[in-house]
């Protein structure tokens, strides 16, 4: 399939954590999604010259576990390429950690009391920059995310802006050089993703909940960045 000016590359790193509600968001913006699944043998592209946006999804891997998951190195290289091209980029969960590592930030393990809680709703505190951000401002009235209690960003990359934290001050969202976003939480979460991750959808707000609407608005805002960028 040939690429054109409205194509977005989506890297899925874990079979459990698919694109979820990102798919309809891209469709609403008239964007064509190119899904790459390295865990199924797909090769991670080495350049982004024919793409207008990049998304790296989450998963239950460690962002620096190159010995067990060699393609993580290629994903980090691709994220550096995206920065060099000033390409609208969204890293979610593991994708945010890879973005931080790729751009010389630092990640660390979950706090012991959090470890093992796969998915949970987390109240977010937006910074002033977050409230003014084209993506995070979508959460201004309902600042709640769903995240995985695992590794997280401990030190932001250079030229980055903190957008949101959790109750313990942990990084939940940051932006680098205006068009690269890292989100520790999962706005793409839907029934299929949550059920696959934890076997139940009890922790997921109802489809008509304002929290879910805010997540949708955030994804739509990113898709608009790709479409107009």
Structural summary, described in words:
This protein is α/β, with parallel strands linked by helices. The chain has a single domain (7-228), classed as Class I glutamine amidotransferase (GATase) domain (Rossmann fold, 3-Layer(aba) Sandwich), CATH 3.40.50. Helices cover 28% and strands 22% of the residues. The chain contains 6 helices and 12 strands. It has helices spanning 22-28, 71-85, 94-102, 128-132, 191-198, 210-228; strands at 7-11, 32-36, 53-56, 89-92, 106-108, 120-123, 125-126, 144-147, 152-155, 160-165, 171-176, 180-183. The strands form 3 sheets. An 8-stranded mixed sheet has the order 2-1-3-4-12-11-10-7, sandwiched between helices. The protein starts with 6 loop residues before the first strand and ends with a helix. 45% of the residues are buried.
Mean pLDDT reading: 93
The CATH class turns out to be Alpha Beta
CATH architecture: 3-Layer(aba) Sandwich
| Content-based structural category | alpha/beta
Number of strands: 12
What is the domain tally? 1
Protein name: Aminotransferase
Pfam families: GATase
Keywords: Aminotransferase, Transferase
GO molecular function, one term: transaminase activity
């Amino acid at each position: 399939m040939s690429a054109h000016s409205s194509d977005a590359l989506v890297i899925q790193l874990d079979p459990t954590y698919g694109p979820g509600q990102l798919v309809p968001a891209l469709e609403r913006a008239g964007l064509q999604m190119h899904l790459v699944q390295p865990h199924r043998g797909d090769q991670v592209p080495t350049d982004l010259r024919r793409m207008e946006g990049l998304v790296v999804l989450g998963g239950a891997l460690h962002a620096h576990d190159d010995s067990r998951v060699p393609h993580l190195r290629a994903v980090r290289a691709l994220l550096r390429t995206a920065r060099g091209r000033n390409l609208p980029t969204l890293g979610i969960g593991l994708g945010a950690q890879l973005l931080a590592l790729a751009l010389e930030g630092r990640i660390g393990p979950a706090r012991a009391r959090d470890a093992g809680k796969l998915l949970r709703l987390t109240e977010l505190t937006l910074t002033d920059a977050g409230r003014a951000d084209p993506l995070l401002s979508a959460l201004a009235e309902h600042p709640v995310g769903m995240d995985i209690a695992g590794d997280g960003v401990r030190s932001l990359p250079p030229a980055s802006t903190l957008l949101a934290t959790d109750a313990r001050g942990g990084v939940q969202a940051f932006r680098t050089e205006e068009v690269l976003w890292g989100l520790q939480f999962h706005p793409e979460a839907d029934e299929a993703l949550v059920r696959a991750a934890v076997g139940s959808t009890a922790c997921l707000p109802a489809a008509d909940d304002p929290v879910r609407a805010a997540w949708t608005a955030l994804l739509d805002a990113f898709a608009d960045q790709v479409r107009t960028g």
